[in-house]
Amino acid sequence: MGVRRIAGRLAMKSVRGYEHFIDNRRASYHLRHARRFARRYVRRKHSGAPELRGPVAFVGQKEYFRQAYYDWTSTGQHFAFDLNSFDHCELRALPSFCKKHGIKTCIIFRPEWFAKYRKEFSDLKSMNVKVVGFSTEPVVRRLDGKETHLDQVSRLLNLLQALTLDYDLFVHYDELSREALTQLNFGPLICWPIPVSRRLFYPNETDKTYDFCFLGRSTPYRESFLWDLKARFNLIHVAHGMNDEAANEIMSKSKIVLNIHNLDYLNFETRVVQALLCKRPLISDPLIWNILKAGQDYIEVRTPEDLSRVAHDLISNNKWSEFGNYSTDLSVFDINTFMKRIGYTDEIPSI
Fold first, then answer.
1. Residue 251 pLDDT > 70, yes or no?
2. Which residues contact 313 (CB under 8 A, 6 or more apart)?
3. CB-based contacts of 227, cutoff 8 Å, min separation 6
4. Which of 20, 46, 85 has its CA nearest to residue 167?
5. pTM across the whole model
6. Of 134, 143, 133, which Cα lies nearest the Cα of 179?
7. Given its phi and psi angles, is residue 290 left (phi above 0), alpha (psi -120 to 50 degrees) or beta?
8. Which residue, of 35, 152, 176, 260, has the fewest CB within 10 Å?
9. What are the pLDDT digits (tens) for 50-80?
10. How far, in Å, CA of 133 to CA of 124, rounded?
């Protein structure tokens, strides 16, 4: 059975909530498929990170990634190429789009999606366009199967499709997966968090309509944290998610922004940075990267009971207004910083 079919079956089990962390033996079985796939399809040696030039085309779903690239595309010097979440056939038009706009670099969010469009990928390479694959989905952190979540295995098996293409550079948003991805021949590889736009997220003083807001789909793990707050406080939960200007508006109308991971493993969501740029007090479960400091930039909770206790104290005693002034330098999340890190050598736009 191919890795794509295995990934599909695992994804269905994860969505249905059948399993959480899987045992070492089962995880190792699926990860052996990953190793065999990587050995079979990768034939090139990793060179160093490429020199990237503009104009740049940012290729991905606007509803998820506009927040990452908007500070550049809004200048008119760089371009967005929007993809549909359910049908990626727009990628067939990418070479002609790049030719029309003189694109020198393509940054592809969800690089595994391009695997079905090998001719179009080859066309880009023949045009001397540098192609960067930006992996934005959580995958395994180790290949021995320990402390591995079903969801991470499924997403890794999907990501492996990107290995069949000759990307000039891979970027992955989670530094904890660096070793595993390197062992699977993803390279050259840079780990860096997803950028967040300062033109879309900024302080917006307005009346506070809600005690709490949470923007993200509903999962059993998240609801275990949220149910008590929903019963006791004025909490708005936008279960289909909310992005960009609309997200700024809802966050700004809320006393406190909540961040709860999709499933029960460590992660880092961009809504964390969005909330801080909007100067909103933030409560979150533990985060990867160690860029943000618990107790300094956000209030950390580890259990539903922790969240209920902290929420009651902040709202009932009107302490929420004492928080919201982060002290960490957030420039690491600027797209200018990101582009310099991945080797962009042309002039950097002013933000």
1. yes
2. 319
3. 304
4. 46
5. 0.90
6. 143
7. left
8. 35
9. 899 999 999 999 999 999 999 999 999 999 9
10. 13
